[in-house]
Amino acid sequence: MSEHRATIRWSRSGADFGYKNYSRDHVWLFDNGVVVRGSAAPAYLGNPHLVDPESAFVAALSSCHMLTFLTLASNKGFVVDSYEDGAVGFLEKNANGKLAVIRVDLHPSIVFSGDTQPTQAELDWLHDKAHRECFIANSVTTKVNVAPPK
């Protein structure tokens, strides 16, 4: 149905290639010209000022959930003024003993306006349906929980 591309570019730049010495800094290049500077997470010798893949993964899940939620809310006649999510991903060992982002907790805070405000049951339905329809959530085995904002 559609293709989504990214080019990831890294080079040694002359540094010693010992495990503790080489830079983890790299760039993500997207077809629309956007460039994102990335690195490993600081716990894995990365640059704390750049985006690490695990945080990007959490952001992708949260963003996909939000975009799906906004579509569903609009289709139901609800007016969303703002949406903020303090999403948290947990890197732990999975059932096979491998490190994985095993769980992502979403904490959306949503402000609605207009005459039609969702009930708690409608809000729960919107989040459940958003999770079931989110392309990214459908692509991973990570458990995704929706909880109140922190």
Question: What is the structure about, briefly put?
Answer:
The chain is an alpha+beta fold and 150 residues long. It has two helices and eight strands, in the order βββαββββαβ.
Instruction: Give the DSSP E fraction (strand runs of 2 or more residues).
Output: 25-35%
Q: State the order of secondary-structure elements, H for helix, E for strand.
A: EEEHEEEEHE
What class would the helix/strand composition place it in? Answer: alpha+beta
Spatial strand order of the main sheet: 1-2-3
Over all CA atoms, what is the radius of gyration? 19 Å
Main sheet characteristics: 3 strands, antiparallel
Structural description of this entry:
The chain is of the alpha+beta class and 150 residues long. The protein has two domains: 6-44, no CATH class; 53-146, K homology (KH) domain (GMP Synthetase, Chain A, domain 3, 2-Layer Sandwich), CATH 3.30.300. It is built from two helices and eight strands, in the order E-E-E-H-E-E-E-E-H-E. It has helices spanning 53-75, 120-133; strands at 6-9, 26-30, 35-38, 79-85, 88-93, 99-106, 108-113, 143-146. Helix 1 (53-75) packs across helix 2. The longest helix is centred in the middle third of the chain and has 23 residues, at 53-75. The radius of gyration is 19 Å and the shape is elongated. The model has no long low-confidence stretch (mean pLDDT 94).
